[in-house]
Design goal:
The chain is α+β, with helices and mostly antiparallel strands. Helix content is 21%, strand content 21%. The chain has helices at 2-23, 113-119; strands spanning 55-60, 65-68, 73-78, 81-85, 100-104, 134-136. The radius of gyration is 31 Å and the shape is rod-shaped. The protein starts with a helix and ends with a strand.
């Protein structure tokens, strides 16, 4: 009788391990699947064909500094390299009202620095309406 109960117990354990082994491959761990909906733009690999994100910048001609209004970061030149930072170094000062608002398609405004430098020379803000001039690049 003892041999029969031992065989039954071993058989039940083998069956339990098989069931847990098979279901271990299919049990989900509670992860969440997020399905993103299309925002109406082209897929990442396709050209935009007119659908562009706009970036708004304040350009400070006297300091050659850009401020990204949305991301709240500054772009400034250090030597021949453009830097991005959340606060300007102590050596660079900007006057809050002395800026030109520029809307661009590019997330790196300094790519157009040479044209902005010519269009808005330092010291010319008094001739312009301070902080009101809006440029579309």
């Amino acid at each position: 009788m003892k041999r029969t109960s031992l065989v039954a117990w071993v058989g039940a354990m083998a069956f339990a391990f098989m069931v847990f082994g098979w279901t271990g491959c299919t049990i989900q761990t509670g992860g969440v699947v997020v399905e993103e909906k299309s925002k109406g733009g082209p897929p990442p690999h396709a050209p935009a064909h007119g659908y562009r994100a706009k970036h708004n910048y304040y350009y400070y001609p006297a300091s050659y500094v850009y401020f990204d209004v949305t991301r709240r970061v500054y772009f400034y030149m250090e030597g021949s390299v453009w830097r991005t930072t959340v606060s300007l170094p102590d050596s660079i000062r900007v006057k809050l009202g002395d800026h030109v608002t520029i809307d661009m398609d590019d997330d790196e405004p300094y790519r157009e620095f040479e044209s902005h430098k010519k269009k808005y020379p330092p010291g010319q803000m008094k001739k312009m309406e301070k902080g009101k001039k809006k440029d579309k690049d």
